[in-house]
Write a structure and sequence with these properties.
Layout: E1 16-21, H1 30-44, E2 48-53, E3 65-67, H2 84-103, E4 107-111, H3 112-126, E5 130-134, H4 138-144, H5 153-168, E6 171-174, H6 177-187, E7 194-196, H7 213-222, E8 231-235, H8 244-257, E9 262-266, H9 271-280, E10 287-291, H10 298-302, E11 307-310, H11 320-327, E12 332-335, H12 338-344, E13 349-351, H13 356-368, H14 370-387, H15 390-404
Parallel strand pairs: 1-2, 1-4, 2-3, 4-5, 5-6, 6-7, 8-9, 8-11, 9-10, 11-12, 12-13
Helix pairs in contact: 1-15, 2-3, 3-5, 8-13
């Protein structure tokens, strides 16, 4: 979908936005995708977006990225909670001080809690509004990644800090209705200041029938998969909280009845760890871990599948991969979390979180009823077009900008 760029006017103001991204942007997973798509689609509408990020990452889509200083002993992509983020956030904040003079934004769009914390300091110093982009609970993520133990002193401190941060922002965007409910029930942030801008997808990039039958067969052959074999596909982080151990056990049950099936699990890190787990389960020949896939390659890799899986166990984080699956017209089996239900509606194959037997049964149902599987995939594709495109998402973000900054000072 193409935008018609706006001309700045009192009714349609254009904004000069500083996005603070406390990540090694761009890496090919999770929150990075939301940051990328928001920036690209806002820019397509005529707004100016500059991203302030950690060192490393790769430049994409010709977006202007200003990076803070690095350190000699840490030049790897960080996934999830890490002690390295403490000094990286400090350097990001210092870089933000000089960046404000350089960019002179109309407003600050802070991603994640660290981005909102840094953004609050800068917004107070420069007198510009702060929009927080909330993608899940800070303390919930720390527990999911085993960085904190529930109920510990550290947990109580970060819970207090999280509560402060979500009240400091002028307005909050959440990536799901579940996120908005979490802010209200656990942190007391009023719904009037919270707007749900769901994770979305570009349905022209992620689309059914992306590959010709010949190219699909060639790509499958690269992984040793016959052209007509049923394929279950996953694309995302490889981690226990993503449900990968449960998925491997479900695959073992599926393969007992349908040994011709393949499981293509794209992602990183811990690839060798999960390969060993699959070997121990006796399914290493059919459960394949090809490794990291770039965001640009993702549509082609998903097109190799007939069924997609989203076994994520976290109840607080987003699940943007599900939207990519839906846009590809793939039926989806997922654990029954609030976010998966929000995205899939009544046409997903939901299973109680952690229920390996149930997950296997839903996969078997789709494998043995291909017409029903195709119908569910078609319905999910229509749901994307109706509710979850980035064109719709960007326009909603601009409406929030107008609320906190009716008259931007920049002339674009």
């Amino acid at each position: 979908m193409k935008y018609t760029p706006l001309r700045s006017s009192p009714d349609n103001p254009l904004y000069n936005v500083l996005m603070i991204a406390p990540t090694m942007f761009f890496a090919d997973y999770g929150s990075h995708v939301r940051i990328l798509e928001e920036a690209v689609n806002l820019r397509a509408l005529g707004h100016r977006v500059t991203i302030l990020a950690y060192p490393n990452g790769r430049d994409v889509a010709e977006l202007p990225v200003i990076r803070c200083w690095g350190v000699p002993f840490n030049y790897r992509i960080i996934v999830g909670s890490s002690r390295h983020k403490f000094y990286l956030d400090a350097m990001l904040g210092l870089k933000g001080l000089t960046t404000m003079f350089r960019v002179r934004p109309d407003l600050i769009h802070g991603h994640l809690h660290e981005g909102a914390l840094i953004g609050k300091v800068l917004s107070r110093l420069w007198g510009v509004p702060l929009v927080m982009d909330f993608q899940g609970s800070l303390t919930g993520e720390m527990i999911d990644h085993h960085f904190l133990r529930a109920g510990s002193v550290g947990h109580r401190f970060f819970l207090w800090l999280e509560r402060c941060i979500v009240h400091w922002a002028d307005v909050i965007l959440t990536s799901s209705r579940n996120g908005a409910d979490l802010l209200s029930t656990q942190f007391g942030r009023l719904n009037g200041d919270v707007h749900t801008i769901s994770d979305c997808v570009n349905p022209e990039v992620f689309r059914p029938n992306l590959l010709t039958p010949e190219k699909r067969a060639r790509l499958r052959a690269d992984y040793g998969i016959p052209p007509d074999a049923p394929v279950v596909v996953y694309l995302g982080l490889l981690a226990d909280y993503q449900g990968i151990p449960q998925l491997i056990q479900a695959a073992r049950q599926v393969l007992q009845r349908h040994p011709e099936t393949y499981f293509l699990l794209f992602g990183w890190p811990s690839i060798e760890y999960y390969r060993a787990m699959a070997a121990q389960a006796g399914v290493a020949e059919r459960v394949l871990f090809p490794g990291l896939v770039s965001y640009e390659q993702a549509p082609s890799m998903l097109a190799l599948g007939d069924i997609a899986v989203a076994p994520k166990l976290s109840a607080t984080e987003g699940a943007g991969k599900i939207l990519n699956y839906m846009a590809m017209g793939l039926p989806v089996v997922a654990f029954d979390t609030p976010v998966s239900c929000e995205y899939l509606g009544n046409c997903g194959n939901h299973v109680a979180p952690g229920d390996v037997d149930g997950f296997a049964q839903e996969l078997l149902f789709l494998l043995e009823n291909p017409a029903e599987a195709r119908a569910r995939g078609d319905w999910l594709r229509r749901r994307i077009l109706e509710r979850f495109t980035w064109q719709q998402g960007a326009l909603k973000i601009v409406q929030v900008y107008k609320k906190v900054c009716p008259r931007p000072q920049s002339v674009l």
